[in-house]
Amino acid sequence: MTLGIYYPWGKAKVSRYLHSETELEGEPFVFHGTGKEMFIGFIKSVGLFIVVYGTVGILVSLGGEFGAVLGGLLLIVFFALGIPYAIHSSMRYQTSRTSWNNVHWGYRGKLKTFIQKFLGGYFLTVITLGIYGSWYVQTLRKYVIGHTRFGNIEFDYQGDGMEYFLLNLKGILLTICTLGIYFFWYNKEVFNYTINHISAKHGEEDITFTSELTGGALLVQVLTNLLLLIFTLGIAFPWVIVRDLRFVYSNIRLSGNFNVEKLEDTETAYNDAMGEELGGLIESAFE
């Protein structure tokens, strides 16, 4: 009815609902993002796309083959910088606009450093024909998680590139050998590896995360969701989202002394949703 204009407000409402239905020790999470913030971020992102693609169009029209080359280089630079910017800024926005028990989350990563790690790792992955990919993923994950805060709780990630490489190598080979059946156990291993290598520090107290996901449970979850979508012609999509969130959270355990009374709200506000919306536009551009 609004020709898509209402989308940011609808997106904000969905996020508020999902956060409010997610609880930790009986207390719900709160999402503070607004449709107005997301709409402004969307307008900025669309404006940036128009400027970039408009410039490319002018270069191609007026510059011939040389202009086409310059336009292609401009697009490469745009996406090379735009993708890590979208990831970094979206992380800042999502964490800053989320709170629990009046304590906000936060992300303290530096954009310049993240871009360097993102592009450097991508280059090494390309020239090694994908072999460096496992180290690349672990490097980015370690940086992002290591710079995430929940009040005065600091997070850490200790995944290892070689371990992750061998895990993926085994998973790919067994998936091929079993004609795809092992795929669910492969994904279970990846999920468990990631969760099991996340930890947090709250003062002198250590908090660890453990995943209890099994391949069989993941297989049942995926097949059930698929059947729901098929037999309802897609109408069950909201139920699938809720089922998946419950499924994931039910398989994660926290261990350690989590003292709510020692929580402090230390993070600064960040309400620029441009990176959040730019990521969606870039994703759409590659589809």
What does this structure look like?
- With 287 residues, the protein is α+β, with helices and mostly antiparallel strands.
- It has a domain at 1-109 and 271-287.
- Helix content is 63%, strand content 14%.
- Helix 3 packs antiparallel against helix 4, helix 4 (133-146) packs across helix 5 and helix 6 (183-196) packs across helix 7 (215-231).
- It starts with 6 loop residues before the first helix and ends with a helix.
- The relative contact order is 0.13.
- The model has no long low-confidence stretch (mean pLDDT 93).
Round the Cα radius of gyration to an integer and report it: 21 Å
Helix content: 55-70%
Total helices: the number is 9
Q: What's the order of the H and E elements?
A: HEEHEEHHEEHHEEHHEH
Strand and helix layout:
Blueprint: H1 7-20, E1 23-24, E2 27-31, H2 35-96, E3 98-100, E4 103-107, H3 111-127, H4 133-146, E5 148-150, E6 153-157, H5 161-177, H6 183-196, E7 198-202, E8 205-211, H7 215-231, H8 237-250, E9 252-255, H9 274-286
In brief:
The protein has 287 residues and is an alpha+beta fold.
Features:
9-stranded antiparallel beta sheet
